[in-house]
Amino acid sequence: MNLQLALDRLSKQECMDILADTTDSIDWIEIGTGVIKEYGMEIVREVRAAYPSVTIVADMKTCDTGKHEAAQAFESGADITTVMAFSADQTITDTLKVAEDYSGRIMIDLLGIQDPERMEELSDLGVDLVSLHFGKDMQQTGELDDDLFSLVKDYPNLEVAVAGGINLESLPLMLKHNPDTFIVGSAITKQTNRTEIAAKMRGVLDEYEANNSHGRL
Ligand SMILES: O=C(CO)[C@H](O)[C@H](O)COP(=O)(O)O
């Protein structure tokens, strides 16, 4: 199980400081959409230079001009770039092709998707990595519910990440669905004891993995 640290609503210096404090516990670094909007692709290049062998996810949240934006992300050093599930099929197929050319991956962000038919279409398009996502603004009036996993239940071969206000308390509920990747932002990045929290989360994931070998529920 991967722990993906989402760097959102932070300055460049804060991103670098947080990474220095937490990289021992995390697997994937996500450079958040807002951070990319603030600093451009340069921040992806800088994180890549500082962490040459860690998997970097550029949270581009691409929804159009897929070829161009996917190439931007991979050229800058990202291993994975995100594309919104509601995008045109052409956008999805274009980004998948670019990912193949760069030996990268596309993570399809399922934010707002409820229709099982869209899941079928995405699967037919060749999507192999998705994120179940309860958005930051949605978190103001609700919380991540593990019902979200019903979207992916018929796709055992899909690699699944889950995001949306996950913290040490909500981790156990999500764990039983055995996702491949937990995306965690604020519960680590906005805490003064972030090193300790990241290490605790890592410990919870490692312990779960050691004691459970079943696939996704
Ligand atoms: O993509 C995002 C927001 O759109 C965040 O990266 C994701 O929601 C994780 O952050 P948090 O744990 O703070 O919700």
Automatic annotation (TrEMBL):
Q: What class of enzyme is it?
A: lyase
Q: Does the keyword Lyase apply?
A: yes
Q: Which residues form the Orotidine 5'-phosphate decarboxylase domain?
A: 2-201
SMART domains noted in UniProt: OMPdecase (SM00934)
**InterPro entries per record:** 3-hexulose-6-phosphate_synth (IPR017553), Aldolase_TIM (IPR013785), HPS/KGPDC (IPR041710), OMPdeCOase_dom (IPR001754), RibuloseP-bd_barrel (IPR011060)
Q: Does the keyword Lyase apply?
A: yes
* Pathway stated in the Swiss-Prot or TrEMBL entry: One-carbon metabolism; formaldehyde assimilation via RuMP pathway; D-fructose 6-phosphate from D-ribulose 5-phosphate and formaldehyde: step 1/2
GO MF term set: hexulose-6-phosphate synthase activity
UniProtKB keywords: Carbohydrate metabolism, Lyase, One-carbon metabolism
As for family, the record states:
Belongs to the HPS/KGPDC family. HPS subfamily.
Name the record gives this protein: 3-hexulose-6-phosphate synthase
Organism encoding this protein: Halobacillus seohaensis
Gene that specifies this protein: hxlA
